[in-house]
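User: I'll paste a sequence; please echo it back and then give the predicted structure.

Assistant: Echoing your sequence first, then the prediction.
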Amino acid sequence: MGRIVVQPPPWSKQNKGDRIPHSDKVDPEDPARSHILLTIHYMEQAGVEIDDRAIEIATKLGRWRSERALEEADVAPGDVPRWKRSGKEIDIDRPSWVYYVRCGHLVKIGTTVDLATRFMAIRPNEVLALEPGSLILEGERHREFSHLRASGEYFHPGADLQKHIETLRRDYGPPQWDGSIVPDGQNWFSDKA
């Protein structure tokens, strides 16, 4: 009569001393590990059986999410992360503006549907230009001028950014905005149409 070998159940090999479910299935050196584990967690909550194929899919999704997160601009001090903005800041049904404001020696490129509220929050030294557009256009401008990025939504005023601002001022006119400005006597554009 043959000897019966009892194999331990598969779950007994999981989580040896680790409180994070399925962490033994993800390389601890993977830079996207936290994104992968969160993806696995969401999949499990949705009722997906976590097998080898699910781990493979979660790894691809987690790495993709990690890469997107690295492309996101850092949040500058005093700015609000996109995911924390109020509903009216991301309301796509209302007209929105991509704004170019001077804060000290840097140019902030942002988006809002409510210029007055936004400018009260950031208190720029000068409103340089306004361009009709949404978060999508803002993202395009951030990529276009990424070589001038100082931090987050703040950019050094390089020649191509200055040229773009001058083009906007020519196409849409100089912004007629005096409210919530903190003058510092260094207006880059003194023309008020």
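The longest strand covers residues 97-103. Residues 8-18, 86-91 have pLDDT under 50 and may be disordered.
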